[in-house]
């Protein structure tokens, strides 16, 4: 297999080309046109499909997890149906969209409860299993490390004003460029208890914020942090910050449960379970 890297082929025409099992990473195909192209069995991950127009396509046995909006299939916007069904299947899900201070307190009650259940589940796994990755995604321990980072970034830094709240075990998202002084140690292998101690401290910080939250404060903005780091130095809407944290907590808990199910099935010699309903991509 040959590697083609850092080459601008804008406007190139490919005709009667076989790219079976090819790998595309950091490739720009915006505005491209595909006609009589076979994508059967292809895997798309972290792909920007906004504005996609598909006509006369064969869509069968397809599994899509995505952040979706304005998705029309055969002339019907299916998003409201999907959202309503996900809310029906996951009664706590609508609580992650609070509109007032009391709603944020209720939402954080849910986060604490469901993560407590997931941690108890995780304690039934071996240390090696808690560091095991599924399909290249983060391990359970790495997921917890990322949530420590998310809280440090959005609550401790953006909301509470600490310019450098980082712990050495913080794990930024993979797509984020290195941003000193934010740490990024991908090789660290802390124990579950070490990471849970950090998590308990950060979750307590969020609890203090939501317990003292008022509707007036929720509609306000933060004082800008001036020192470099992540997120970038500027003022942020308090509501945006807290919704970001709820989204991170809700989604990563789903990822964790999904992947623990796969790890468990593999340990017992079974096939990987069917994908969990309502788990969008990382």
Automatic annotation (TrEMBL):
Positions of the DinB-like domain: 112-255
Record Gene3D superfamilies: dinb family like domain, E3 ubiquitin-protein ligase SopA
Protein origin, superkingdom: Bacteria
Pfam families: DinB_2 (PF12867), Pentapeptide (PF00805)
Descriptive protein name: DinB family protein
Source species taxonomy: Bacteria, Bacillati, Actinomycetota, Actinomycetes, Micrococcales
